[in-house]
Every structure is written in structure tokens, then in C-alpha cells.
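Budget justification aside, the reviewers requested a transparent look at the raw inputs and outputs of the sequence design task funded under Objective 1. We therefore reproduce one unedited record. The lines immediately below are the C-alpha cells for a 253-residue chain.
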């Protein structure tokens, strides 16, 4: 999307006095040129790059669920953008109050589905669905925050959890295991079944492919952050939004 120029998005007046005005100052697509078709399963790259994924019914365990969850979504979004399934656009708005006595600008990002997703990756499919849902069904601007909220809602609902990132990954892994025979779950039970420990096992050849693809896509991400200010700001915005969204779902008890 090219720069559309400055235009008023929303305006509130009473008796000729302007109380509020929101103006779009600029918006343009964040152009990303990088190697396409790196992997068939971008949603599994962060998971496959981990030495092991273990969890129990009683404790969090050694796995860093937050980092894996954030990186899984971030890399899958990047893969969708690179392969032109979605378009990433940055926009800058100006908000004015009381006949422009008070003004401030803000930048944000939104995503638009460019073409039908025809791959087999579970997370990619769900992200594209969230982009389309927010844009068409809810009638909202498909901002990054709206899309992430819908994506997480679709996985774990709107309840509170002790470790919501862990719940997200468990459900995501279950969806992959249902489709792929090279991902298995080994369970170990103790105390008459009241305690269980689970380990995700990925077939070695497939794990090697995932690790190689992870390195390629992660290097692309690092290079983009170094060379593109718009992408660097997007990455910061992504982590700010996703951390906040999971935080508000964390139970206080």
C-alpha cells in the first residue's frame, strides 16, 4: 500500500467547535524482500530449535514457554509476510483535542490478507484467519493488537491461567500432533496417575530441518531489524503487544 496522504479519519464538533479530530498522516507497506519458501512449518521453528520441550501437570518445568511462544508467532508472521500471504502496513495518526490545543501522534501497524493461505502450517493458518476475521467479521481495522488478541482468544479463550503461554503452546502442539506423525508425546505417570510428566519428541531428521530453517528465518529477522527502522519498530511493537496481552490473562493467585 502506498502513502495515501493526510486525511481525516474521525472528527467531533459541537456548535462549530471541534472537540476531537483524528487524522491519518501517512501509511505505507513495509517492504520485505527475502528468501521465500524457507519451511513448510514456520509455526514449529521455535519449538524445533529447543533441545527439549517438557512440562508437567504440577509445575512449569525448565521450558521457557514465554520466549518460545513469542518467537513462534513472530517468525510465523514474518514467514507469512515474506511469502506475501499478508501485507504489513505502518501508519501514523495525529489526535487533536479542543481545536488542536492538544495534539499527539502515534504509529501502529496493521495486516491485510493478500491471498489465500494454501499451506499446511497450523499457526500460519490461524494467523491468517485472525487477520481476515478482525477485518471482515468485526469490522475493525486489522491492527497488530486486534489480530494478536483474536489469535490468543482462539487458542485459550478469555480465561485466566497461571501460565497462559504454556497453555497456548500445549494447544498449538496438540494441533500439530494431530496432523503430523513425526511429532509424538511421551508421558510418564507417578503416584497412581496423579502426577504426569510430558515430553515432546520430534523425529530427528525433521528436527534437523526445523533447526536449519529457524537459523535462516532468524537471520533474516535480525538483518531486517538492523537495516529497516520500520521493521525494527514493528518488532518492538509486536513484543510490547504480545507481552501485554498474555500478562492480562495471567491469574494473580
Amino acid at each position: 500500500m502506498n502513502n495515501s496522504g493526510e486525511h481525516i479519519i474521525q472528527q467531533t464538533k459541537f456548535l462549530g467547535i471541534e472537540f476531537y479530530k483524528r487524522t491519518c498522516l501517512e501509511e505505507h507497506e513495509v517492504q520485505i524482500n527475502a528468501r521465500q519458501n524457507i519451511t513448510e512449518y514456520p509455526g514449529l521453528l521455535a519449538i524445533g530449535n529447543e533441545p527439549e520441550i517438557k512440562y508437567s501437570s504440577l509445575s512449569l518445568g525448565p521450558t521457557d514457554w514465554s520466549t518460545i511462544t513469542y518467537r513462534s508467532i513472530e517468525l510465523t508472521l514474518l514467514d507469512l509476510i515474506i511469502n506475501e500471504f499478508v501485507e504489513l502496513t505502518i501508519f501514523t495518526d495525529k489526535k487533536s483535542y479542543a481545536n488542536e490545543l492538544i495534539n499527539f501522534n502515534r504509529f501502529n501497524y496493521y495486516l491485510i490478507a493478500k491471498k489465500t493461505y494454501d499451506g499446511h502450517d497450523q499457526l500460519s493458518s490461524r494467523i491468517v484467519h485472525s487477520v481476515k476475521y478482525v477485518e471482515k467479521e468485526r469490522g475493525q481495522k486489522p491492527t497488530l493488537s486486534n489480530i494478536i488478541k483474536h489469535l490468543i482468544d482462539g487458542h485459550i479463550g478469555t480465561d485466566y491461567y497461571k501460565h497462559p503461554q504454556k497453555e497456548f503452546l500445549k494447544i498449538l502442539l496438540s494441533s500439530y500432533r494431530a496432523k503430523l506423525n513425526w511429532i509424538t508425546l511421551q508421558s510418564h505417570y507417578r503416584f497412581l496417575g496423579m502426577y504426569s510428566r510430558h515430553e515432546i519428541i520430534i523425529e530427528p531428521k525433521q528436527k534437523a530441518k526445523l533447526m536449519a530453517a529457524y537459523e535462516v528465518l532468524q537471520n533474516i529477522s535480525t538483518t531486517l531489524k538492523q537495516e529497516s527502522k520500520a521493521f525494527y519498530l514493528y518488532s518492538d511493537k509486536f513484543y510490547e503487544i504480545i507481552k501485554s496481552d498474555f500478562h492480562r490473562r495471567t491469574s494473580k493467585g
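The CA atoms of residues 66 and 165 lie 6 Å apart. DSSP finds seven helices and seven strands in the chain. Computational costs for records of this kind are itemized in the attached budget.
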